[in-house]
Structure formats: structure tokens, C-alpha cells
Specification:
Structural class: alpha+beta
Number of strands: 10
Distance between the termini: 32 Å
Number of helices: 5
Shape: globular
Radius of gyration: 19 Å
């Protein structure tokens, strides 16, 4: 019998039409769509494990996933073969064989998310599905100053939405950049892991700070109080993209 091989995938997708990465009972998901394509290709009922359970409407450029197979297809060819069976809004951009010990979710050592804002009186016709529209002018320098206390290891319980499954709320933010180019504002956040809706709550709060709806020290206060009510809105899902997942080596 052909032994199992573990295949790692790097996946890009537009999350607009999906109820998130994770398989759902009554709604389409990215995971289910990939598994159907894999079954069509190999005839196997293989589970595809993703590094991040992105929410409904969230996008990805560098989602990482793995599955086990006895197929004879060369590892580097899975991306090409799967893409012929996938809808246009999901693409496998790389595939390779990895050690059986590799685990896309539990082996991840860091993730990078980007939140994009179209800050203009009028929404973008071209980027309306990838950028959150904010009409009032945002004070980016104020947002940058407000974000400084978030860097490092803290208890982020105030930045977590109800319904998350994480046991603890301490997280380590290693990078938080806010950059502006014309109407586009990019918020880039890096850390080993994140709480449920944490990046979107952070982005929404920074938007409120940039508008003057929250004081400049709002994030610092919320870290101390642990109270979700000290923060702003949960920013819309479509502005968020999973950019990269990092592993040892």
C-alpha cells in the first residue's frame, strides 16, 4: 500500500462569498471548497487543516494548510491540479511535501494581518470588497501614537469578541505599523496568535481614535481595564487580509 504523505498548501482567497475558512453546516466555506476539489482530484476524503480560521468575509494571501494523501501526484503539482477544480476566488499558490510532524495550525510561530481602509469622502469602486470605507478624515499620526502601548505582551481580553474558544487572553504583538498613501491606510499587525476578532477590534478602535471619537490613550486604558466597552467598533471583515503564516525554519 502506498504510504501517506503530508502536503502543505499556501492558499490565497477572496473571502467575500464564504462564511470563513472553517467548514460550516449551512454555508459555503473555503475549507469545504478545497476539500471538494481535493476529493474530485484524488478520490480521497481528506481533511484539510488550516493555520487560521478566518471569519466570514476575511481574505487571505498566505493562508497555510495541510492534508495527508496516498495519491501519486507529485507534491509540487497539487497546486496546478487543484486550481483547475477551484472557483476563481480561491487559488492554491504553492504546494510541497513536508514532514508528517508538520501541522499548519499548531506549528505556526507567527502571523501577519493587514487591515486596509479607504479614507475618502467616496467609497472606492475598485477596492470596495477589500478595503473598509471611512469617509471622515483620519489622523494617522494620532493613530500611531495610540497604538504604541499595544506592542509587546499584554492581556488582550478587552480586544476579544464573545464566542472565541481561546483558553487564555495573553498575546504578544511584535509589530504594529500604520501607513498612509493617498486615500489608502494600511494597518499591519504581527504576532504569534490572536484572539477572536482581535485585529478587527484593534482596527475599529484605531479608526475611532483617528476620528477623535475615542481618546488617544483608549487602547492603553482598555489593556488596563480589560473592558471591551472602552474600545471602538469591530471593523468590517472585508478590510482584513491574512498576509502570511510563519513557521520555524
Amino acid at each position: 500500500m502506498i504510504p501517506y504523505r503530508r502536503i502543505r498548501l499556501t492558499v490565497s482567497y477572496d473571502g467575500t462569498a464564504y462564511a470563513g475558512w472553517q467548514r460550516q453546516r449551512n454555508a459555503p466555506s473555503v475549507q469545504e471548497t478545497l476539500e471538494r476539489a481535493l476529493h474530485s482530484l484524488t478520490g480521497e476524503q481528506a481533511a484539510i487543516v488550516g493555520a487560521s480560521r478566518t471569519d466570514a468575509g476575511v481574505h487571505a494571501l498566505g493562508q497555510v494548510a495541510h492534508f495527508d494523501t496516498r495519491s501519486r501526484i507529485p507534491p509540487e503539482k497539487f497546486c496546478f491540479a487543484l486550481n483547475t477544480r477551484l472557483p476563481d476566488d480561491i487559488r492554491v499558490v504553492a504546494s510541497q511535501q513536508v514532514s508528517p510532524a508538520f501541522h499548519a495550525r499548531y506549528g505556526a510561530r507567527g502571523k501577519t494581518y493587514r487591515y486596509q481602509i479607504h479614507n475618502s469622502p467616496h467609497a472606492s469602486a475598485l477596492y470596495r470588497l477589500q478595503r473598509a470605507h471611512v469617509a471622515p478624515p483620519l489622523d494617522v499620526e494620532r493613530m500611531r501614537r495610540a497604538a504604541l502601548p499595544v506592542l509587546g505582551e499584554h492581556d488582550f481580553r478587552a480586544f476579544a469578541a464573545a464566542g472565541g474558544q481561546s483558553r487564555g487572553t495573553v498575546r504578544d504583538i511584535t509589530r504594529l505599523d500604520i501607513r498612509r498613501e493617498g486615500a489608502l491606510i494600511d494597518i499591519t499587525v504581527e504576532g504569534r496568535s490572536f484572539l477572536y476578532n482581535m485585529v478587527r477590534i484593534l482596527a475599529g478602535s484605531l479608526i475611532y481614535i483617528g476620528q477623535g471619537k475615542l481618546p488617544e490613550d483608549a487602547l492603553a486604558r482598555a489593556l488596563e481595564s480589560g473592558d471591551r466597552l472602552d474600545l471602538g467598533i469591530t471593523a468590517p471583515a472585508h478590510g482584513l487580509t491574512l498576509m502570511e503564516v510563519r513557521y520555524d525554519g
